[in-house]
Amino acid sequence: MSAITLTGRLSLATLAATAERPGVSGPAVDPRALSTGIVHFGVGAFHRAHQAVYTEDAAAATGDTRWGILGVTGRSARVAEQLGPQDGLYSVLTKARDSASLRVMGSMRRVAFPGTDTEDVLRTLAAESVHLASLTITEKGYPRTLRGGLDLGNAGVAADVEALKAELSGQGTAGAARTPLGLLARGLARRYAASGAPFAVVCCDNLVSNGGVTRGLVMALAEAAGAEGMLEWLGTAVTFPSTMVDRIVPATTEANRREAEQVLGVRDEGLVVAEPFGQWVIEDNFAGPRPAWERAGATLTDDVGVFEVAKLRMLNATHSLLAYLGALRGYPTIAEAVAAGGLVEEARRLQRDDIIPTLDAPPGMDLAEYGESILDRFANPNLGHTTIQVAMDGSQKLPVRILGTVADRLSAGEVPRSGALLVAAWMVFVYRGRDANGRPLVLDDPMAEALREAAAGSEAGLADRLLAVREIFPAEVADHTEFRAAVTEAVRRLLSEVP
C-alpha cells in the first residue's frame, strides 16, 4: 500500500473512518453498546489477543452486550496509557506464514492502573452487573511458598492482607493494592459486604490446576485476614474454573505498528500480534452468568486437566527447549531455532521419548500429530517470537513445564535425557549470559539475583549448584543420581558448544 497521511490515534472518534478502509475488520460489536461484566487482571498482549477476542465473538454471536471488559494492569501503567486515549480500542494483527489480517477490537471498555485506580477496581468487582474476574498475571504473579501455599513473607502479600482487614472492618479504602490477588481479594470482600452476589474467578495462566491454585491463594488471603464470613461465602458462592489457553502472541515491535498504521490509517499504540491458531478449554463451573464462549469456539468441559497437562508438557516445554538452545546458539527467534534441523530433532526427541509416555491423550487428540502441529506453528517466520521472550522467568516455568515430566519418568524407572537437556540448557543460559556469538543474553527472572549467585563458580559444579535451588527443583528430582548425572553431562556438552 502506498504511503498515507496519518490522522491521529485509533479511537471511537476515528473508528468509523478506520472501519471503511480495505483490510480492516471489526469491532464485531459496537463498543458503545457494551456494559462492563468482566474484570480482567493482567491486561497484556496475550489477553487482548485471546480471551478478549473470544468474549467479543461470543457477544457478536448472541447479541449479549453485558460482557465488556475492565482491564487491570500490573505494576506498570503502560497499557492504560496506551489504551486510555484510544477509548479501549486496539487491533490484532494476525500473521500466518503467507498472509496477514487486521481486526479492531472493542470488548476492552477501559483500563485501570492499581497504583491510582484501586478504588475503581474494587467498586467494579462489587457491582452486581459484574459476574466474572479473569487473570493472566503469569506464573510469577502467584505468590507461593515451596509447598504451594500463600507466601505471607512476601511484602506485597503482607501489605494486602492488612488492606483486606481494613476493607472487612469497613474502614474504607486502604490505598493501592500491592499484588493482583490482593486486589482481587479486596474486591471480593467488597462484593461480599455489598450483596454477596455469586461470582466466578477464571484463571488463564500456565499453572497445573490453575483454578484450584487461584482458589487456594484467595482463600488463604481471606483466612490470613480473619475473614470467617467471607471464607464461607467464597466456599459457597464463588467458583474458580480451571482453563487451558493457547495462542502464540509475540511481543509487538515498532515495525508491526508501522505495518498496522498503513492499513488502519491511524496509529494504534495498543496493537498486538498473534498467530492464526487459538484454543481455550474451560471448566464449566460458574456460579452465575457467563459469556457464551462456546459460541466463539471455546471448549466447555467437566475436565480441563487432561488438556491442560498435555499443553503444558507438549507445547510449553518444547517452546522452552527451543528458546534456551536457540538463544545459546545465537538464534534471535523461535522460528529460526526450528529451522535449524538439529534443534527441531531435539524437540521431537523430547516429545517422543520423555513427554508423550507421561500423558493421557485428550479426547480426539493424537499426541504425535499434536507435537508436529506445535512445531509447525513455531516455524511461522512472520511471528518474530524471540527466544529471549520465551526464555524469561525460567525459575517459574521449569517446574510446571518440564519437572513434572521428569518426576513421572523417574518414577517409571526411566531417565529423561531430553528433559535433562532442557534443564541443562536453562542452566547454561543462566551461567553464560551470552550466546555463541558473544552477544549478551538477558536473564529476566524474579529470582535473577539468587540464580546468578547460585551459578557463580566453576563449570564443573554448575549442575550441582543449580539443582540445589529448592525453590525450583524438588528433592526427588534434584537428588536422583542418574538424572543429576544426565544434567551434568548435558551441561558439560553445552558449555563446550558455547565457548
Low-confidence stretches: 1-6
Largest sheet: 6 strands, parallel
Strand content: 5-15%
Placed side by side, the strands forming the largest sheet appear as 6-3-2-7-8-9
How confident overall, as mean pLDDT?
A: 95
Classified by CATH, the class of the largest domain is Alpha Beta
Overall tally of domains: 2
What is the count of helical runs?
21
Number of E-type strands: 13
CA radius of gyration: 23 Å
Textual characterization of the structure:
This protein has 499 residues and is of the alpha/beta class. The chain folds into two domains: 12-301, 3-Layer(aba) Sandwich (Rossmann fold); 305-497, N-(1-d-carboxylethyl)-l-norvaline Dehydrogenase, domain 2. Helix content is 48%, strand content 11%. It has 21 helices and 13 strands. It has helices at 12-19, 45-49, 51-62, 78-83, 114-126, 155-168, 180-194, 210-224, 228-237, 254-264, 305-328, 334-339, 341-355, 367-378, 387-391, 394-411, 417-432, 448-455, 462-467, 475-478, 481-497; strands at residues 24-25, 36-41, 68-72, 90-95, 100-105, 108-112, 132-135, 199-203, 238-239, 243-246, 272-274, 279-283, 299-301. A six-stranded parallel sheet has the order 6-3-2-7-8-9. Strands 1-5-4-11 form a four-stranded mixed sheet, with helices on both faces. A three-stranded mixed sheet has the order 10-12-13, with helices on one face. α11 (305-328) packs across α16 (394-411) and α11 (305-328) crosses α17. It is globular, with a radius of gyration of 23 Å.
